[in-house]
Amino acid sequence: MTTFKPLALAASLAAGLTCLAAPASADLWHSEQVLGRSITFYSPPALDRQPIAPLVLVFDDTAASGGALAERFALWHYAKEAGFKTVFAGNIVPGAKGNGVPSNDALFPMSIEMSLQTGHADPENLYVVGFGAAAQRAYDFACQAPGVLRGIVAIDHDGAGEEGFACDDTGDLLVLSVHDGVPAVAGKAGGGASRDTEAVDAVLDTLRNAGATVQSVVVEGNDAAFPSIAAKLHEQTGISLEKLVATFVDKTMK
Length: 254
Description:
By secondary structure, the protein is an alpha/beta fold. It has 9 helices and 11 strands. It has a 9-stranded mixed beta sheet with strand order 1-11-8-7-6-4-5-3-2, sandwiched between helices. A two-stranded antiparallel ribbon has the order 9-10. The longest helix is centred in the middle third of the chain and has 14 residues, at 104-117.
């Protein structure tokens, strides 16, 4: 597995891509209900007129809705210049149910299937951005349906946990992992002074062995001084997490 220094990778990916100066037009936003959850869509004007286009689906296990996630993670700011549509879906937790709403076990693959069948997505350029537990859902899907996804960006994913992770084939999957691991345990090497990335490294090694091309950004920094992994990344590189993700997609699209 190849590990990159955050500053070097971020600068390389971000070359030539700048943020939109003004917010996107509101009439290109819309929301739909998928299995009882609010999914939010954004399409740049030029791509909105195209029958298919590269698509980035953003899933999070903590955001209350797609709209809330789009406000917090403004990937759509870069969609016009990078040339992709975006979809935002919140409350993505494996097996979670509530108020009679079906499990997220069905929501994740169903959202992808709907995107392909309705023409939202170019089937050769379908990406997933997953925060936390949603990243593992993306990995699981990529292994169950190799070749469907072009790429996955996993953000702040700590590893598969006690259930472990196995994967036989990912097709030509491209993976970018942006993570800082978990607090190191006292008594282990580096304990108390750093963070432990062993569990997430094991997942990335499994993906690489199954055929994926993996890029890994380990974000260092004192947790107490930063509210999020995005803030730590920006402090180290001067580049936003959204810009890093957008340029990864831009530079790897077919």
